[in-house]
Structures are given as C-alpha cells and as structure tokens.
Amino acid sequence: MSIHSRRDIITEEVSVKALKQVTLAAVLGALSMTALAEIKPFEAVEYRKGIFKAVKWQFGPMGDMVKGKIDYDAEEFSRRATNLAALSHMPLEGFRAGTYASSTSALPSIEDDWQTFADTMTQFQNNTAALQQAAASGDMKTIKPAFITVARTCKSCHDKFKD
Ligand code: HEC
Description:
single chain; Cyt_c/b562; heme binding; Four Helix Bundle (Hemerythrin (Met), subunit A); Cytochrome C
C-alpha cells in the first residue's frame, strides 16, 4: 500500500468519525437530552416515580401468584423477578439534592439520613437478587419466603422515608 492511499484511508476514517459525532449530537438534540448536571428537580422526581411505578407493575402480579389469587406461572414469575432485580438498581440516582419539596412523597429525611437510605436500597437490591434466584427454582415453597423478604423491604423503606 502506498503512503498516499493510506493517508486517504485515514482521512476517510476521520471524516466518518466526525459525521458520527455530528449525527449523535443531532439525535441527542432532537430528544432534548440534557447532561446530568442540568437535570431539573422535577425531572429527577418524575424519573424515580416512574421507576417505582415499574416496580409496582412487576411486583403486583408476583404477589397475586404468591397469594394464589392467580395461577402460578413459573416462566412469568421468573421474568418479573429478573425485571424487578434490574429495576432495584435504578431509583437511587433520582434522589438528588433539592428534590424533596414539591410533587413528591419522598421525605427530606432521605437527605439527612442518606447512609441509611442508601443501605436500605442496597438491601432491596440484594433481596430482589435472592428472589430472582429463588424464582429460578420454580418451587413456591422456596419463592414465598424470598418474596416476603422483598415485600418487607418495600415497607420498611416506605415507613421511614415516604409520606
Ligand atoms: C430504599 C427505599 C425504597 C424501597 C426499598 C422501595 N421504595 Fe417505593 N418509594 C420510595 C420512595 C422514597 C418513594 C417516593 C418517591 C417520590 O414520590 O419521589 C417511593 C414510591 C413508591 C411508589 C409510588 C410511585 C408513584 O407513582 O409516585 C410505589 C408504587 C412504590 N414506591 C412501590 C414500591 C414497591 C412495590 C417496593 C418493593 C418491591 C418499593 N417501592 C421499594 C422508597 C422505596
């Protein structure tokens, strides 16, 4: 390969890169994406509420199966347990400074006692991971106690940190 053609290839690569960057900027602009630092308090509140809505969406039918209100479906239960375990890692970043005043039922004690709140969220992550594992057994005798442990984690956090 001659030096000249090699330079052509490099130039081409650079311009493809530049094009990709321009395209990404245009796409992000169209989605009106903002940098994390520019997030407004209401956006953080909407974000965490949205995650908890999804948590409820997944957890509700699991509870109905554990209680025998609807038939236990091992595949569905497992899928929801996997979703729940993934969701458990998402709310914490929505609890930002200055987001406890309006349109929220999160208590300001979250900010004052951040370590306890973050630790409870870690328990939530561990307990939903354990539930996901129990779900894989396909055995309600194994699943039920793991489910109850998660439900207690929801309640203990809400009792302390939610209106
Ligand atoms: C570590 C603390 C914590 C854990 C664990 C937790 N929550 Fe919450 N949850 C909160 C807080 C704080 C709010 C209030 C969020 C807000 O209004 O800004 C909330 C809000 C909610 C909401 C209301 C969302 C809305 O529509 O505004 C639902 C539903 C909910 N949680 C369900 C659950 C369920 C079900 C679990 C367990 C499977 C759970 N949460 C576990 C802290 C927690």
